[in-house]
Design goal:
By secondary structure, the protein is of the alpha+beta class. The protein has 11 helices and 15 strands. It has a single domain (48-387), classed as 3-Layer(aba) Sandwich (Beta-lactamase). It has helices at 53-70, 114-127, 152-156, 169-177, 185-193, 209-223, 227-236, 281-284, 290-302, 308-314, 375-387, and strands at residues 20-21, 74-81, 85-95, 100-101, 108-109, 204-205, 260-261, 270-271, 287-288, 318-321, 324-326, 331-333, 336-343, 346-353, 358-364.
Length: 402
């Protein structure tokens, strides 16, 4: 979900202390054991409409309405399905200071969509026999609370019970005082590990950036490479993504949109374009564009970089939020499979519906909450109400205070 600082990084909607008890109220929104699989309903091939000019006008109106409601500077949207046409649009501005328009070829920070790359890297190592999903994290990283019992699978499923480092007040102060600061993974973990664990491993769902920092360190340990190098070489390149990078610093390829946030010490809106993303690292540092995310959404949902067996493990989702299940670094939101992301200044939704082979990508240059909801979720909901009214992309509004 989101890669929030003050707000936690849960898709784009959940925060610091949101926990979901597993197995509570069988048959309800949170029901079922930790291993329960949320199956996507079967859909016919005609469940996704032709993207005719009339449908495009409806979509244009819906996007403009959300932009006005949520005060979004700029947004890009891609919708497509085989034989149904494409809807590719950019609305609004990339730079509020100059009024320069946002364009569909611009790079954007993708926040927690980065998690899908980090977990893909981990699952490649599973396929190679270098790590096991049920290995304890303590086998690879020393000093983790409950490290002898928390498994790699539980980290990827957000069931570790570890405290989310980005919800720590000391981290907030350090980051917002100096957004250009470079954090090491070990510094990020220290903010988490000074807090008690929240629950026993596997007991609950709790979206937590700490989990991904640990998985990034596992990838580094077992490959002997920096995480950025491994992902760029062994995930991005084989996926044939031309404008996607795991940055090694604050670099931001041109052209890119400026990003605007109110996650600041003053609470006033600031331009966060060049803030260093090291604080999010394996949980949210990556950069991409609309075309690459269209391609990645299908690769992610269909598992072409993994063995069928490992992809099947990835797609086993536990109940996470009402209407949404979470697998191994991946969401299933009423049949839309993928992830969303949010970090200061930017949000993204990257999803694919296998039954209709439909793709929906949304990228925007603000993360400012609108009436308790992430703007990316508002766009996803408005768009799917038009194109897949029986399968709405939505995440419940949550309390965004820590």
């Amino acid at each position: 979900m989101a890669t929030r600082v003050k707000r936690a990084v849960v898709g784009a909607a959940v925060l610091g202390m949101v926990v979901v008890p597993l197995g509570a109220g069988a048959g309800g929104a949170w029901g079922g054991p930790a291993s329960a699989v949320v199956a996507a309903p079967v859909r016919g091939e005609d469940d996704f409409p032709r993207l005719t000019p009339a449908v495009a006008r409806q979509l244009d109106e819906a996007v403009h309405e959300v932009m006005a409601e949520a005060n979004v500077p700029g947004v890009m949207v891609h919708l497509s399905a085989p034989g149904k046409g494409e809807y590719v649009r950019a609305f609004g501005v990339a730079d509020k200071a100059t009024g320069a328009p946002i364009k569909t070829d611009m790079h954007m920070r993708i926040g927690s969509v980065t998690k899908t790359f980090t977990v893909t890297a981990l699952l490649q190592l599973v396929d190679q026999g270098k790590v096991g999903l049920d290995d304890p994290i303590g086998k690879y990283v020393d000093g983790v609370p409950n490290g002898d019992r928390i498994t790699l699978r539980q980290l990827a499923e957000m069931r570790s019970g570890l405290f989310n480092y980005s919800a720590d007040p000391g981290f907030d102060k350090a980051f917002f005082t100096d957004p250009d600061r470079v954090f090491t993974p070990q510094e990020l973990l220290a903010y988490s590990f000074k807090h008690p664990v929240l629950f026993e491993p596997g007991a609950e769902f709790f979206y937590c950036n700490t989990n991904l920092i640990l998985l990034g360190l596992v990838v580094e340990k077992e490959t002997g490479q920096k995480l950025a190098d491994y992902i760029n070489e062994k995930v991005v390149a084989p996926a044939k993504l031309k404008n996607t990078i795991f940055p090694k610093g604050a670099e931001f390829p041109q052209p890119h949109a400026h990003g605007y946030t109110n996650q600041t010490l003053s609470g006033k809106v600031e331009d966060a374009t060049d803030w260093d993303p090291s604080w999010a690292w394996a949980a949210g540092a990556m950069i991409s564009d609309l075309d690459d995310m269209k391609s990645w959404a299908k690769t992610l949902a269909t598992g072409t970089l993994l063995t069928p067996e490992t992809q099947a493990e990835r797609l086993k989702v536990i109940d996470a939020l009402p209407g949404a299940g979470y697998g191994l670094g991946i969401f299933n939101i009423d049949g839309w499979i993928g992830h969303n992301g949010s970090l200061p200044g930017y949000e993204a939704v990257v999803t694919y519906m296998p039954e209709t082979q439909a793709t929906m990508i949304i990228e925007l240059n603000t993360d400012i909450i609108s009436e308790g909801q992430e703007p990316s979720t508002l766009f996803g909901e408005a768009i799917t109400k038009i194109v897949t009214p029986e399968h709405i992309y939505t995440l419940p509004a949550q309390n965004t205070a820590k």
